[in-house]
Amino acid sequence: xxxxxxxxxxxxxxxxxxxxxxxxxxxxxxxxxxxxxxxxxxxxxxxxxxxxxxxxxxxxxxxxxxxxxxxxxxxxxxxxxxxxxxxxxxxxxxxxxxxxxxxxxxxxxxxxxxxxxxxxxxxxxxxxxxxxxxxxxxxxxxxxxxxxxxxxxxxxxxxxxxxxxxxxxxxxxxxxxxxxxxxxxxxxxxxxxxxxxxxxxxxxxxxxxxxxxxxxxxxxxxxxxxxxxxxxxxxxxxxxxxxxxxxxxxxxxxxxxxxxxxxxxxxxxxxxxxxxxxxxxxxxxxxxxxxxxxxxxxxxxxxxxxxxxxxxxxxxxxxxxxxxxxxxxxxxxxxxxxxxxxxxxxxxxxxxxxxxxxxxxxxxxxxxxxxxxxxxxxxxxxxxxxxxxxxxxxxxxxxxxxxxxx
Length: 406
Prior knowledge:
Layout: E1 13-17, E2 30-31, E3 41-42, E4 46-49, E5 57-64, E6 78-82, E7 94-97, E8 101-106, E9 112-117, E10 128-129, E11 140-142, H1 150-158, E12 163-167, E13 172-177, E14 181-182, E15 193-194, H2 197-207, E16 212-218, H3 222-235, E17 238-242, H4 253-261, E18 264-267, E19 279-285, E20 288-295, H5 299-318, E21 328-332, E22 336-337, E23 343-351, E24 357-361, H6 371-374, E25 378-382, E26 391-392, E27 397-402
């Protein structure tokens, strides 16, 4: 349940400078246009030598440091001082580390004139990074649908990649509704409640690096809905509302979406607990497709439905290979009474002695009681009640959707 709508959703691609790609999903393979390293590089501080040269004493004919490339005619009985990361001179086919040498002579300025090889056993190409040994020209260095994080940014910088084609992150507008809803800092009069949905849902979006557009609180009038929705459509790709989707006489949000904006309602009542009134619709506004999720006003219902419906949609637009929440198996710590509807029951999890996750209810599950989410690690997926199974017994194995890392 909760992911059927993903079939009509697809993401958009755009080019971004590599420095702005962090946390985006890659839209195509990134291919190296050149090898790395682009030159044979020394792995150690030491001396570039000829492996077949058996001379014990070597004349130091020059020095190569990182960022410097000089031509040396390396012959038998000679060597070139090199540093870690510096170019290995032509003809040299090994580097012997400083620790395996000793200085024989220096000039008046302290520069090395000759050294002694204390350890003659050398392998060809010893301590040399060959051209393309890290990255070959034409190699796929980051694959399509890979999430770009710090390591990937470093790889792109190393390989000179200045931009990448990535899935565009959607902008999400949050709009609360209701004559009785006031801002969180407002003293309460009888009959009014403070809005917590924009705050809690907003931070869920921030956690996922999504740009949030706060559209405020609309009163329960068609004119207010139209005004606030138009602002949301202008600013965002996804619009998430809370409230005004139940069966009350003021719950006219769906009507406004359909009649005034031509929205197509894909689903409008769901056989689940909590979140039965949740509605998903799409429309075209100024030539652009908009996705609208109308969530219930009760805080827990809004929170649960956001996880079940909105987050998978966002992840699909962002290019995730698997945008759905993957269920895990857990064991019930105690009996749980079942509802007539499938239920997403809030639980916290602990490991038992057998390393099995054990689910403990967070307490009363009323859709208005946000405290039931406070310590929750997961939503249990409970089946509907039947005459044969009114209760799930302690020890039963059920599926759960993780909402926190365990």
